[in-house]
Write the structure tokens for this entry.
Amino acid sequence: MMNLGRYPRVSLAHLPTPLERLDGLTKLLNGPEIWIKRDDCTGLSSGGNKTRKLEYLMAEAVAEGADTVITQGATQSNHARQTAAAAAKLGMACHILLEDRTKKTSFEYTENGNVLLDRLHGATIERCAANPDMNGEMEKVAARMRSEGRKVYAIPGGGSNPTGALGYVNAGIELVYQANALNLRVDHVVHATGSAGTQAGLVVGLTGIRSGIPVLGIGVRAPKEKQEENVFALAAKTCDKLDIPGAVKREDIVANCDYVGEGYGFPAPSTIEAIRTLASTDGILLDPVYSGKGMAGLIDLCKKGFFKKGENIVFLHTGGSVGLFGYANDFQSNG
Ligand SMILES: *Cc1c(COP(=O)(O)O)cnc(C)c1O
């Protein structure tokens, strides 16, 4: 059995997040029953999946006596925005290293959406060109800030390390309790996967309590093999942290990376269509970088019969709708 309670945690999120049936989308697709776990409603600075991770990461920062947190992400990073808000709430300074992964130069992309909120929460921002080792770049900036006398706690991109993943171990357990209370048999969980912490934590949580519920990550960046390896490596480390080494097997980690489109940070036509669909069928906002791609995958897989009538699918909504305001141009054509 897992002993999550031994790790310090600060309260940042509105939990449990709702588990609701997507009546409109279920009717439209006429396939499986589709449910949604509303982790876009975690509360902090308009919510999202990073808040659960930050409950454990920020607790570690507090325990270490940090006065400053630093993190990194793409320009429209939801993780950076939620970190900035968490730091504000806990009275810490926040410094963010934003990577230019898209070369987009519009005001809406570089200053609106998440960037506007980073600044509102009082974070300082530094920008850099695309770099394959962003956590390494961030460590250099952290070293500079330490040399200036700050007590810096560094949070990796996406908050994805074994500490951050604990937030999703907990989410997996939360989901099973909720489904039990509704007498709902969950056949599959589907969500957008990026820096791996969400899927790794979820699989550890769902496996650790022997739920038997499979998870499908819809990739937003890396190819399938690479994404699955990243998630598996983090899941294995998270199992070690919880004293259940080896509990997650390589075959428990499944990603489908067919919905990335042009690349990270570029919504594909299917992404835009999925966002328009859910907004009109159920009044729910997705985002152009992650959850829109996750939903595009779910919709396509339903249409292809991968998920069957009579099955219950839970889409984990990881948040990010603030990013829509950084991508308004992508929605201008066809109405
Ligand atoms: C970060 C993020 C994800 C991906 O979660 P990871 O833990 O990085 O895999 C999905 N959706 C949204 C909206 C995000 O901000």
Notes: Residues 48-49, 78-79, 158, 160, 192-199, 287, 290-291, 318-320 surround pyridoxal-5'-phosphate (CB under 6 Å). The chain has a mean pLDDT of 97. The radius of gyration is 19 Å. DSSP finds eleven helices and ten strands in the chain.
